[in-house]
Amino acid sequence: MNLELLKKVLEETEKQIKKDQNKQSTQIEKEQCFISNQPTEIVEVIEEKIETKEVEKFKAITEFVGSTIGDTVGLVIANLDSQLREKIGLDKKYSAIGFISARTGGAPHIWAADDAVKETNTEVVSIQLARDCKEGAGQGATIIFAAQDVSDVRRAVEIVLSSVDKHMGDVFMTDAGHIEFHYTSRASYALNKIFNAEVGKSFGIVVGGPAAIGLVMADAALKAASVDLVNYLDVNSTGYSNQIIITVTGDSGAVKQSVMAAREVGKNVFRSMGHEPIALGKATF
Asked: Measured between alpha carbons, how far is 79 from 97 in angstroms, rounded to an integer?
C-alpha cells in the first residue's frame, strides 16, 4: 500500500469516527432532553432503572427477617424438616426455629440473645462461636431459637437484631486489636447456656485481644471488686483466636465495677501503644 492510499484510508476512518461520535452525542442529548421534560416521579423511575440496569433482580423470601452490624443476618424457618430437627437435637414439640448468624462479634450477639429470651416464649437451642474473625480479634456467632409458633422465633430474631446494635457499643476497635465488655444485672438462659451463668444473677464479661491485653484486663477486673471468676478462656480454648476472655458474677454493683475497671485499663494499654480505641456504637454503661 503506497503512502497516498494509506493517507486516504486514515482520513476516511477519522471522518467515520467523528460521525459516530456526533450521532452518540445527539442521542445522549435527546435522552437528557426527554428526561428533563418528564414529571419528577417519572424522572426518578427512569434514573432508578438506569442505575439498576445491570443489577440482577431478586425476590424477597419469607425466611429473611433482617440484617445488621457485624455481617449479622436473622432468618426463620416456620416448619423445620424432620431430619434436620433430629440432627439439631430439637424437641419434637418445636417446629419453628430462628437463626442469628454473624461474622464479627460473639458476646454482643449472646447478650442480645439473652435480651430476646427474656421477652419471648422461645428456647435457646444452640449457641456456637466460630473462628471467623473477619475483623479484629473477635469471633463470629450462630444462635438458634426454637418455639411452637413461628411468630415467637421471628420476634426473638427481631429483638436480637435490634439489641446487637446496642451491645456493639461496648466493643472498642483499634488497628492493633480490640477490647469488649458486657454486663447484665440479671442473666438469662442464653448466658447460662454458653457461659454457665447463674440465671437471675448479675454477670459480666471482659474480652481482650491481643491476648496479653486480655490478661492484664482480667487481672484488673478481679482486683477491682469482690467478684467470682466463672470462666477463663485463653487462646487455646477460643479456637486459637488471639484473645483472653473472663466472665465474672456476684453482686450487681461489684460486677459492674469490675468490668468498668477492666475497660479503663484496656483503653489505656492501647493508648500507650499509640492507638485510640473506637467504640462501634454508643456504650451502654
From this structure: 8
- CA of 123: how far to CAs of 17, 47, 127, in Å? 70, 47, 11
User: Residue 242 in 3-state DSSP?
Assistant: coil
Interval 94-133: pLDDT, tens = 989 999 999 888 899 999 999 999 999 999 999 988 765 5
Q: Which three cell numbers stand for residue 16?
A: 467515520
Contact 259, 181 (CB under 8 A): yes
The 3-class SS string of 194-225 reads HHCCCCCCEEEEEEEECHHHHHHHHHHHHHHC
State the DSSP code for 179: E
C-alpha cell at 192: 447460662
**Cβ-based neighbours of 57, under 8 Å, separated by 6 or more:** none
Q: What is the pTM of this model?
A: 0.75
Residue 283 CA to residue 136 CA, distance in Å, equals 18
Secondary structure letter of residue 81 according to DSSP: -
Query: Would you give the DSSP letter of residue 54?
Result: T
Of 163, 168, 184, nearest in space to 113 by CA: 163
Model confidence at 90: pLDDT above 70: yes
Q: Is the distance from CB of 209 to CB of 137 less than 8 angstroms?
A: yes
pLDDT digits 0-9 by tens, 125-177: 999 887 655 655 457 889 999 999 999 999 999 999 999 988 988 999 998 99
End-to-end Cα separation, the chain, in angstroms: 84
CA distances in angstroms from 218 to 72, 189, 239, 244, listed in the order given? 28, 24, 19, 8
Q: Which amino acid is at 216?
A: V
Length of the chain equals: 285
Cell of 49: 432503572
Cα→Cα distances 35→22, 29, 46, 51, 231, Å:
20, 10, 8, 14, 65
Q: What's the grid cell of residue 145?
A: 431459637
